[in-house]
Specification:
Layout: H1 2-6, H2 13-29, H3 35-57, H4 62-69, H5 75-85, H6 94-98
Helix pairs in contact: 2-3, 3-4, 3-5
Length: about 100
């Protein structure tokens, strides 16, 4: 089901994958957002790559890969919801919090 929706966006998937990898690494290294979101975005990057390579090389397996990679591709939705609900809050240092 998902792969039929994504067939039109296949050529841009490697570019989107590279952007997600960079964004995921930034989220992982910064301390404003939880690290699991950064890991999820990097996994999302590889899911996009797998989806696009499978669609080009083995189109008969595109639905199978799409079904397995769909939960991983929700990383973008997760970070969007996190930023809307929680926001990027700066944590106070421990020494300043004790005063």
């Amino acid at each position: 089901m998902y792969s039929t929706l994504c067939r039109d966006c296949r050529p841009e998937s490697p570019v989107k994958s590279a952007n997600l990898r960079s964004f995921g690494l930034l989220v992982y290294k910064c301390h404003f957002l939880p690290r699991f979101l950064g890991v999820w975005l990097v996994l999302n990057c590889f899911a996009y790559l797998a989806q696009s390579v499978t669609g080009i090389m083995w189109p008969q397996y595109e639905d199978v890969v799409g079904n397995y990679s769909f939960p991983v591709m929700l990383g973008e939705v997760a970070i969007m919801l996190w930023l809307i609900i929680m926001g990027a809050k700066e944590r106070q240092p421990l020494a300043a919090a004790a005063v």
